[in-house]
Amino acid sequence: MNEALLEVNNISVSFDGFKAINKLSFSIFEGELRAVIGPNGAGKTTFMDIVTGKTRPDAGEVIWGEKNFSLLNRSESQIAQLGIGRKFQKPTVFEEQSVYDNLLLALENDRQPLSVLFYRRNQSDDAKIEEIAAEIGLADRLERRAGDLSHGQKQWLEIGMLLAQEPRLLLVDEPAAGMTLEERDKTVALLRRAAKTRAVVVVEHDMDFVRKLDCRVTVLHEGSVLAEGSLDHVTENQDVIDVYLGR
Ligand code: ADP
Fold first, then answer.
1. What is the pLDDT of residue 10?
2. SS (H, E, C) the chain
């Protein structure tokens, strides 16, 4: 296995005395695709909030890249700049702008959609945008208004906007929610492609989707790791069957 890119070490966090994360430890490795699953309330969102600096743990460490480089006490924007991108469930693209301009704004790391009026298109941006558009399956829709894309296409565009910022780790929250079957399969292919050049962590409910991702799975329960390994391995685990599959 490669070197750990992100190491979550014995972290705990309580909300009003309730332990949402309880001595959670696990690592994400350079360039891997990982699914994080678990029932509602298992702590998946809180885990992502802690890694991205939105929530501070009460105890434990979050270590990035090189040994002893702590992510604690860093702001959300500092953490993003270090190379951790996060895709929330709802797509947040600039609806009035074209696919091209959305990717350009992401490339320029600019949150003001009207700024595109002042940018001059240049070859290096064009090449980068075409490369990302191909990666997210929107190469033939660059001039399309983002608001006119399907739900699935908007999700891919937002993933593309994150890829434009060249993350080393991409956290993706339930990417397949609300997608058609065809879009879900394309999303599987997109995430597998994306994980060839950076680590991708997918938080997902849908077992069928996780099976198609065909990657290492971490099962969370009550804020801790219950099991880890291939999907077949974790779904044979009696604890997982009891708490997650409810059999
Ligand atoms: P998951 O994403 O796996 O469904 P969450 O991380 O959202 O789980 O939540 C873990 C537990 O922590 C849940 O019981 C949830 O109600 C609780 N929780 C999460 N955030 C807060 C908060 N800001 N205040 C109080 N309780 C919270």
1. 97
2. CCCEEEEEEEEEEEECCEEEEEEEEEEEECCCEEEEECCCCCCHHHHHHHHCCCCCCCEEEEEECCCCCECCCCCHHHHHHHCEEEECCCCCCCCCCEHHHHHHHHHCCCCCHHHHHHCCCCHHHHHHHHHHHHHCCCHHHCCCEHHHCCHHHHHHHHHHHHHCCCCCEEEEECCCCCCCHHHHHHHHHHHHHHCCCCEEEEECCCHHHHHHHCCEEEEEECCEEEEEECHHHHHCCHHHHHHHHCC
